[in-house]
């Protein structure tokens, strides 16, 4: 008997199955790619024809390996920000979509490293061992996810910690003219975080290579690179890199914040960031507004700094503290970008060029500087010295201006002036020498209670060294200060008595040092 022949239906079914398997096998490795054509290349920007499905802020590739960011979407063309130098790019080159937004690597492997705004290493330690990437643009935490600023961020600088305190999760603006010590202030703050559990990110925007190298060397010298990431978008880089740099630094910081860590981010500086954005906007023919800045320049910085916060306990309790730096011209605080950032941040530290020229470093103008949040997070021990210190120093500055006219002064006024000169001396501080909380409290307590009144201004710093040398005698008091316990009048009196004995014991050395 002959075997039965397969029916036509079975043959068709087998054929269709075979075709489906072949199609699935070959199309799984294929994808549809949208390709545009480069129309023109400018200084930091490019214009592209095609890419009908491209989205705003999407990453694209030009010429195969150069990166660009979609900035303008018009019916006729797509405007791009170039993130790489436009070497060898020419009209007619292909532009491909990546179907993703700009992201950067995040994680512990970035600590101690130097990177660019795209997350590419700039040091000689090889690629990052990071397996996670976060987009540089992320929504700020909601109001319900935030908690009050309750923990101080100690800078180690007396005039700031006592009079303009900063809390973890705060946004405190540092502003001043050129060469007034803005970057030095930020570097000293990073150095002071050693051993305090605060991770740091230093974002350099538009700075000269020599200045960036000096900052990195300072961090290495004072052993701060172990907990710091340096992100560099130099003045020689395309303006697009300077534009995305602060957002990339914030994304790297948010990774640690979301895991319950405290992070400090320094943006040095946002003036150059605003200028880079203005340059890109004008090249792509976005209409200028006030002072040729586009109308959305306020939103540019507000959406960045709103990401700095202290998260609630349900979100892990981490914090992101922002120290943006901007440069003023001829002490003009009412210029467009300074007023924008002053209104966005929670206070400002103003560095006066006149104080810097007089050798009053750090050149912090106490009258103009303010912290709208940090006082609630300030250690309780500071309250016993900060209030009389601010009052006496403000009175001194007003009387000193009046006394320049050669007016006869009564004895009480002369005492206020003499006390003020010693307060000014004690607020001076050498760079790279942050002081602990107990050292600051001891020095400020001594000057506000008149223990330095019999010393000349030149002897004040020697007296301060004597106090710090005998700090071991105040060990119990130091523990109470660092535990954020309020000092009783009896404890303050005992502290003053210990300081007075130390000064009396070393009085001969003070006069010898002055001679």
How does this structure look, described?
Helix content is 40%, strand content 17%. With 515 residues, the protein is α/β, with parallel strands linked by helices. The chain has 3 domains: 66 residues, Beta Barrel (Elongation Factor Tu (Ef-tu), domain 3), CATH 2.40.30.20; 274 residues, P-loop containing nucleotide triphosphate hydrolases (Rossmann fold, 3-Layer(aba) Sandwich), CATH 3.40.50.300; 134 residues, Up-down Bundle (Lysin), CATH 1.20.150.20. An 8-stranded mixed sheet has the order 8-12-11-13-14-10-15-16, sandwiched between helices. Strands 1-2-5-4-3-6 form a 6-stranded antiparallel barrel. Strands 7-9 form a two-stranded antiparallel ribbon. Strand 4 and strand 5 form a beta hairpin. Helix 10 packs across helix 12 and helix 11 packs across helix 13.
């Amino acid at each position: 008997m002959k075997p039965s022949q397969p029916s036509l239906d079975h043959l068709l079914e087998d054929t269709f199955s075979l075709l489906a398997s072949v199609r699935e096998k070959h199309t799984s490795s294929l994808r549809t790619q949208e390709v545009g054509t480069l129309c023109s290349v400018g200084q930091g920007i490019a214009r592209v024809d095609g890419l009908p499905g491209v989205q705003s802020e999407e990453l694209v590739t030009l010429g195969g390996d150069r990166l660009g960011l979609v900035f303008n979407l018009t019916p006729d063309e797509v405007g791009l920000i170039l993130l790489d130098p436009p070497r060898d790019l020419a009209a007619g080159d292909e532009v491909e979509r990546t179907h993703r937004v700009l992201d950067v690597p995040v994680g512990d492997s970035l600590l101690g490293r130097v990177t660019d705004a795209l997350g590419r290493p700039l040091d000689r330690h090889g690629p990052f061992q990071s397996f996670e990437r976060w987009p540089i643009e992320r929504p700020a935490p909601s109001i319900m996810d935030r908690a009050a600023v309750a923990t101080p961020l100690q800078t180690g600088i007396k005039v700031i910690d006592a009079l303009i305190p900063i809390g973890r999760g705060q946004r405190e603006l540092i502003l001043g003219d050129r060469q007034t010590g803005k970057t030095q202030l930020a570097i000293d703050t990073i150095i002071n975080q050693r051993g305090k559990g605060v991770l740091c990110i230093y974002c350099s925007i538009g700075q000269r290579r020599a200045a960036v190298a000096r900052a990195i060397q300072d961090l290495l010298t004072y052993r701060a690179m172990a907990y710091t990431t340096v992100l560099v978008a130099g003045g020689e880089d395309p303006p697009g890199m300077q534009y995305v740099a602060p957002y990339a630094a914030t994304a790297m910081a948010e990774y640690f914040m979301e895991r319950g860590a405290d992070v400090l981010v320094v943006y040095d500086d946002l003036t150059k960031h605003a200028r880079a954005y203005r340059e890109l906007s004008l090249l792509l023919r976005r209409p200028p507004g006030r002072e040729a800045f586009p109308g959305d320049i306020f939103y540019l910085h507000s959406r960045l700094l709103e990401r700095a916060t202290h998260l609630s306990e349900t979100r892990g309790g981490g914090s992101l503290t922002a120290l943006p730096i901007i440069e003023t011209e001829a002490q003009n605080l009412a210029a467009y970008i300074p007023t924008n950032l002053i209104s966005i941040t929670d206070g400002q530290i103003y560095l006066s060029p006149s104080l810097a020229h007089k050798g009053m470093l750090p050149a912090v103008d106490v009258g103009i500087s303010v912290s709208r949040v940090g006082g609630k997070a300030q250690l309780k021990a500071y309250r016993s010295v900060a209030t009389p210190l601010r009052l006496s120093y403000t009175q001194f500055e007003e009387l000193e201006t009046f006394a320049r006219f050669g007016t006869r002064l009564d004895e009480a006024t002369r005492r206020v002036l003499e006390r003020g000169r010693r307060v000014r001396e004690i607020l001076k501080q050498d760079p790279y020498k942050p002081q602990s909380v107990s050292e600051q409290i001891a020095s400020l307590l001594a000057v506000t209670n008149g223990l330095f009144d019999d010393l000349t201004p030149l002897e004040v710093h020697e007296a301060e060294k004597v106090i710090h040398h005998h700090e071991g005698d105040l060990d119990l008091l130091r523990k109470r200060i660092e535990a954020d316990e309020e000092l009783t009048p009896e404890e303050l009196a005992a502290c003053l008595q210990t300081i007075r004995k130390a000064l009396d014991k070393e009085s001969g050395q003070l006069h010898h040092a002055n001679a």
